[in-house]
Write a structure and sequence with these properties.
With 494 residues, this protein is α+β, with helices and mostly antiparallel strands. The chain has 17 helices and 25 strands. It has two domains: 253 residues, Aminohydrolase, N-terminal nucleophile (Ntn) domain (Glutamine Phosphoribosylpyrophosphate, subunit 1, domain 1), CATH 3.60.20.10; 172 residues, 3-Layer(aba) Sandwich (Rossmann fold). Strand 1 and strand 2 form a beta hairpin.
Length: 494
Amino acid sequence: MKGSTPMTDSGLKPVDNEADDFHDECGVFGIFGKSDAAAVVTLGLHALQHRGQEAAGIVAFDGQQFSVERHVGLIGDTFTKRSVMDRLPGDRAIGHTRYSTTGGEGLRNVQPFFAEFAGGGFAIAHNGNITNALTVQRELQNRGSIFSSTSDTETILHLIAVSEKTRIVPKFIDALSRLEGAYSLVGLSEKKMIGARDPLGIRPLCIGDLDGAYVLASETCALDIIGARFVRDVQPGEVVVITDKGIESHFPFEKQSPRLCIFEYVYFARPDSTIADRNVYEARKKIGEELAKECPVDADVIIPVPDSGTPAAIGFAQQAGLPFELGIIRNHYVGRTFIQPTSAIRHMGVKLKLNPNKNMIEGKRVVLVDDSIVRGTTSQKIVKLVREAGAREVHMRIASPPTMSSCFYGVDTPEKSKLLASRMSVSAMADFIRVDSLGFVSIDGLYRAVREPGRNAECPQFCDACFTGEYPTTLTDQGDQGNVRSLSLLANNG
């Protein structure tokens, strides 16, 4: 993206112009009242690694002082060292795992953020995106605030600091009252752990119990890894306060109809998580079934694009009565940090990660099932791989509607003009990625899949802005061309 940089919980940085998939920006986790709390947080963050793979941080409190560790890299490569754990004593801790695009600015944007207020220390970690953070930052800077990062999360700390309330929970709520957009937050003071979701509940957050210690986590899979019992979801607009005396709940804002991000079911959440009473794996299979009903095709085999297309492909195959095969094998050991020293290796592209299983493909009419199409360039390469493996026909079915608009709620997406569906019809997209046919599940089919009777009762509608362009909140910092303006641009234009 040229001339504009979106600001997210992962920091203010340019979108990767080559990226062709979506990334949720982070996961949050906290525990209160458990010895070796940081070790438990490490396990929780490991379960949330899919929500952010580039950096992580933990803040712990031992009754006397706060300890902060923030590192670039995967949880297993950084926080499993005994020396790191020894530096994080205490029975309460919060953590954050982060994804950033090209241009992320190292450790200064890695969360949790920590500050010393007049009433004591406070740490905070955030999943989401504050859509008026740049405007609020400028107001605070004009009053003398000095920012040490380019993250919207730091804005929350400054709002807490300048609040005229006298106690931490009222100050925290006062800060939230100034925010627009999406947030799931975990905060830690000397005596309290605080969790909060924005009034629309766009990003998930749940409560668990581990032998009497309360846990906050982005997804239920993080509770499973530590053996915690799922208690309930934090409700949209709710602030939960956890102390030695237990848990109390506040609803300081006007009640609104929830708008959980529907893409959590399509791609972001782990399949073994339950979000808003709906198992993610079940929802993805159901999406595949709806896709098969809406976009049938005469074919020989259903093949998922690994790994995100697999549950939908299973549902598609079962509904269509066609064989399901692993016709594309993913190399899980090639990540974003893979060294590309030569032009020849760079040009391998998708072959570094995916390889066709020719025996399942050759001479067959293949249906590829994927979760979404962003720019279409990766789909092009995958189709080429399958054709080169001998497929007689290649059809593609997508387990979400066409992605028409950018996300401003904490998901790394290209600007709208770079999204293939925003500038092409479905038939033109099929020609672009070179498939014999292309089909997407409809928005109604997607809703049918994720809202079965008795499930998601509190979510009559989701945030589906990436498919419909209907944003559920004000986008104060949105630029004229569908981009979020950067703090530097605001300063230059001021």
